[in-house]
Hints:
Layout: H1 3-9, H2 27-39, E1 44-47, H3 50-61, E2 71-75, E3 79-89, H4 94-113, E4 116-128, H5 132-147, E5 163-165, E6 171-173
Parallel strand pairs: 3-4
Antiparallel strand pairs: 1-3, 2-3, 5-6
Helix pairs in contact: 2-4
Amino acid sequence: MDSHDQASLDPTSPDTDHGQGRTVIADTAVAKVVAIAIRGVAGVHALGSGTSRSIGAIREVVGAADLTQGVRVEVGESQVAVDIVMLAEYGYPLQALANTVRRAVYLAVEELVGRNVIEVNIEITDVYIPSPETEKSSTRSRLSERMGTVGKSTVNEVPAGAVVASPEGSSVNFSNNPSEAGKQP
Length: 185
């Protein structure tokens, strides 16, 4: 028996048909799996070069987003090669970010596609630096999250059972019991 016949009888072979048919996985499907895996990595701001990101923004406006922007794959019978063009966020060490992206791609392709990844080439074309306004608003929201004030009402909340003085000098009792709420102490 030659090596081709042996591979087709191996139950772990990706192209094993078991008499039920053949599975073909298109480059586009693999590219989407790769792109989603990359977008999940902290420090990746966007995929694609400046020009492709501009075209992608126009596509999104008209409802035709290209999820594979910045990702090119070559899918063989059992192997995949990946090329990535991306924009990193400032503050992430670029080599470490590239290694994290590479691991995410290997994991996603091997688990979800069932192919071996032979190489992942990464080109970081630029570093995104947030504008001062963006940085201020994100700092405020992070502070709010830490303080536990995200999503809370801006109205002053008074705990049940508290007695609060009104501007006129009288006090009001705040109780969980509706018959006692608002009574003067």
